[in-house]
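Workshop exercise sheet. Pairs work together: one partner reads the sequence aloud, the other fills in the structure field after running the prediction. Swap roles for the next sheet.
Pair: D.N. / O.F.
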Amino acid sequence: MDLDIGINIKKISMAEPLKAIYNDSFFQQFNRTFSILFPEVSVDRIKATLIKANWENLELRPRMYALADALVAHLPGTYLQQIKRIKKWVILLEEENLEQVKYRGLAYLFIPDWIIKAGGLAYPKQSYDLMETLTCFTSCEFVIRHFLLDNPKEGMLQMLAWSVHPRAEVRRLASEGCRPRLPWATQLPFLRKDPSISYPILSNLIEDTDESVRRSVANHLNDISKDHPEVFIAWVKKWKSESTQTEALLKHACRGMLKQGHPEILSIWGLSDPSKIMVKDFQLSTDQLPWSGTLSIRTVVSQALKQEQLVRLQVEIGYQKANGKINPKRFHLRQIVLEPKQEVEIFWKQSFRELTTRKHYPGLHYIRLIANGKVLTEKSFYLLPSL
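Structure field:
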C-alpha cells in the first residue's frame, strides 16, 4: 500500500529509518526559525523535554507526538495567542530555503498534532484558518478528522468551502480529509454510513486541474465502493462521460471492484463475457522456487467471439501465511484487445524477494490467471525455505 499523505516520501531511501529525518540539519533549521517567532522560549528546554521522553528510542510517529507535547509544554500564552504565532512560523517555514532538511513536510507533521494536543477543538474557526495555511506545507488530513467527528455539519461545510479554494493543496485536503477509509487515520463512521454527504465536495473536485487532487478523489471514491457499491456505480455512470481525464480518474477509482471482477463494473468498461476467453500452455519456470527467487510464467490467451474483445488480465497469488493459511492478493497484469481466433502470448516474472510491505513464508503457493473477473487457470508451487 502506498503512503499518500500529500507528501512525496516514496523516494526515501530505506537505508536508514524514517525517524532519522529528525537529524542535526532538522534541529538547526528548527532552532533558527522557531527562535524568530518565539524568542522567549528556550530551545534547550524543548530539547530537554524530548530527552526526558526517551527520544533516542522513539520511532517516527512517537517522535512527532513528543515534539507536539514539547510545544504544548513550553509555548507561552493562550491557544489563540499561540496559534497566531504558529501560523507566522508556518509561513516562514514555507518561504525558507530548507533544502538541508529532507522531507520537511513529513518532518513537520507534529504541528497538526499540536493543534489537537493544545486544545484546538475548542476553537474551530481559528484552527481551520491555521490548517488552511498549514496544509500547503505539511499534511492536515489526519488532524481534520478530529474536527469532523466533533462537529460533522460544521466540519463538512468547511470541507465544501475548501473544495473551491485557489490552492490545490487545500482542495486536496477537502477530499482526502474526509475519505471514509483513509489508511492509518481516525475513522469517520457518519461518512461510511452515508457517502452522499461528501457528494457536493467530490462533484466540485471530479474535474480538478491538479493531479494530486484527482488522485485523492479517485481514492475517496474507491473507499465508497467498498461500503456502498450501488452508490459508487451510480456516480461512475453519471460522471464517466465528462472527459477523458475524468474517465481515467474513475477507472482508477474502480480498481477495487475491477479486481473483484464485479460484473456491472466490468460491463461499464467494456469488459464482458469472460466465458469466451480461453488459455493454454500455462507454464511456471519451476514448481520448487528458491527463497527470494523470481518465478517466470508463460501462457497463451485467445477468445471465441466473432468480434474483438477487450480483456483485462490479472494475476492472483496465494501467499503462504505464518499460520499455514493462504492469503490471496490480486494484481493487474495488462489490458489487451483480442481479435477473433487471435492468440496472444503472455509472459511475466514474479519476484518473491523480501519487501518491507510483505513478508514471505515457505510452503505451498498458487498463481491464478484471471480475465475479466474469471479464473482461467491455476498452478501451485512451493517456496523453499531460506538456507
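Discussion prompt: The CA atoms of residues 35 and 41 lie 7 Å apart. What would you look at next?
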